[in-house]
Amino acid sequence: MTELIYQQGACVGSGAEQLFFSESVAEQRSAQEVCMGCSVRLACLESALSENTEFGVWGGVIFWDGVAFFRRRPRGRPRKGENQPSLQVDRTELWALVKSA
Predict the structure, then answer these.
(1) Contact at 8 Å (CB) between 62 and 28?
(2) C-beta of residue 53 within 8 angstroms of C-beta of residue 63
(3) In angstroms, rounded to a whole number, what is the distance separating the alpha carbons of residues 69 and 11?
(4) For 70-83, what is the mean pLDDT?
(5) pLDDT of 39-61, one tens digit each?
(6) What is the mean pLDDT of the chain?
(7) Coil, strand or helix: which one is 71?
(8) 89 vs 69: CA distance, rounded Å
């Protein structure tokens, strides 16, 4: 399955590979945008879940210190009026999503 991802993923040859392992929240969002149109997105996410991935954007989900997020906010104090906290997701919910597809 991993070989399929590395051959057919939208990230392959896009020149954007560094985005998928960046610490920058803006670059992580850009990586997620690449994932949205990918034909092997769910296979990529399944691979990340089965391998207990610690870091990177896989299948449109951000893995940070082994925790999965749909989005993260930058370090530091939130801007005034910012009401979109980081949205953490449960790995079991992600597995259910992958298996239902």
Answers:
(1) yes
(2) yes
(3) 19
(4) 64
(5) 889 999 999 999 999 999 999 99
(6) 80
(7) strand
(8) 5
